[in-house]
Amino acid sequence: MPTLHVLRHAKSDRSAPVPDHDRPLAPRGLDAAPRIGDALEAAGGTALALSSTAKRAAHTTDLVVARLSRPPEVRYEAALYHAGPAGLLEHLQGLDEATSPVLLVGHNPAVASLVLALAGEEVAGRLGKFPTAALATLEVGGPWAALGPGGARLTGYVTPRDLD
C-alpha cells in the first residue's frame, strides 16, 4: 500500500513586504520544519517530495528533507501553489505506482481539505485546524491512479506543538 505524507508549510513571515509567493519562513517556521523532518525520519522517511514553489513551502521542504537519512527525489512544482484539493488529488493520481512513500508540501486550505477528503470527515476532530507544519500520514487503499475520496486511512498526525 502506498503511503502519503501531507505537510502544510511551516509558519511564514506575514510581515515581510513581498508578494505572497515570495513570503519567507518566520523564526517559528525555521524551528518547526527540522523537527517535523525528524518526525518524518522516525516514520520511515519518503522516496519523493513534491513541493509548491512558494518560498515558504520550498524552504520547508528543504529543511524537512535535510533531516532524512536517505535523501528523497525532490520536485518543486508551480502547479501545486494555487492547486485546490482536486488539483492536488489529480497530481497524486499521476504518480508512478512504484513510488512510495510520497511527501506533499503545500498550502491550506487545500492540504487540509485533501486529507479530509481522502480519510473522511470523521478525522476532522483529530486534525483540528491543520496548523502550519502539521504532518498527516495516510495509508492509501490502492494504486495512486485510483486514489479518491475515502481512499485512504489516516495513520499518523503530528504538529510542532506535539513535539515540544
Tell me about this structure.
The protein is α/β, with parallel strands linked by helices. The protein has five helices and six strands, in the order E-H-E-H-E-H-E-H-H-E-E. Strands 3-2-4-1-5-6 form a six-stranded mixed β-sheet, with helices on both faces. Strand 2 (48-52), helix 2 and strand 3 (73-77) form a beta-alpha-beta unit. It is globular, with a radius of gyration of 14 Å. The termini are far apart. The model has no long low-confidence stretch (mean pLDDT 96).
Summarize the structure.
The chain has 164 residues and is an alpha/beta fold.
Helix content: 25-40%
Q: In one word, what is the shape? A: globular
| Biggest beta-sheet profile | 6 strands, mixed
- N-to-C span: 31 Å
- Which percent range describes the beta-strand content? 15-25%
Q: What is the β-strand count?
A: 6
Number of helices: 5
Q: What topology does this entry show?
A:
Elements: E1 3-8, H1 27-42, E2 48-52, H2 55-65, E3 73-77, H3 85-93, E4 102-106, H4 110-119, H5 124-127, E5 135-140, E6 152-158
Parallel strand pairs: 1-4, 2-3, 2-4
Antiparallel strand pairs: 1-5, 5-6
Helix pairs in contact: 1-2, 3-4
